[in-house]
Design goal:
alpha/beta; 8-stranded mixed beta sheet; 5 helices
């Protein structure tokens, strides 16, 4: 018995940083019962099944219809009953984009607006927004990669660029020029 969820992360950029969209399939596989509590035990696995980087200069208003098309494709591919969550970088120009996404994605996906902060802990903000420290997002992404919990198909579009961004995060000596793909993955996790 397995339960599948589709998680997507959208990191918004425009002039200097790219906008990136990551689609991650989360499968919870039943592996038995806990010997002490007798509760059902499920093991997660993550597969990065879509990764797109958009051209610099793309207007923010262009993303809601593009993301809505991706969500519709995911729903058809994964099955209309599959839970889909879209976590969006809601800082900077994010709030108007969040409002447009809410209109476009009503009843098709759960929207999680995230304000990326420099703080130390996650907090709940008004209107469904969540504040999450950047280092928490990045360390979670690095952990799932290091533990081989996230599988990245080598033939996936932008997989090589994603690997370079992860390598730049691990090495303070040579940071990557961009981190948009890693941030989209981190938001999706």
């Amino acid at each position: 018995m397995a339960r599948v969820e589709e998680q997507t992360g959208l990191d918004l950029g425009q002039r200097r940083d790219y906008t990136a969209l990551a689609v991650i399939e989360l499968t919870w596989t039943h592996i038995g019962r806990d010997a002490v509590t007798f509760e059902e035990v499920f093991q997660p696995s993550l597969i990065l099944c879509g990764l797109r980087r958009f051209p610099l200069g793309t207007p923010y208003a262009a993303y809601p219809p593009i993301v809505a098309r991706w969500i519709n494709q995911i729903r058809v591919k994964a099955g209309l009953g599959t839970d889909i969550t879209l976590a969006v970088d809601a800082g900077g120009p994010g709030p108007p984009v969040i409002d447009m996404l809410r209109q476009r994605l009503a009843r098709r996906a759960s929207l999680r607006p995230i304000i990326i902060t420099g703080g130390k802990g996650q907090n709940t903000l008004s209107r469904g927004y969540t504040g999450v420290p950047r280092r928490t997002l990045l360390s979670d992404a690095l952990l799932v990669v290091a533990n081989n919990t996230l599988r990245i198909p080598p033939d996936l579009e932008n997989a090589a660029e994603l690997e370079l961004e992860f390598a730049g995060l691990r090495s303070a000596a040579e940071p990557a020029a961009h981190d948009d793909l890693v941030m989209a993955v981190a938001l999706g996790i």
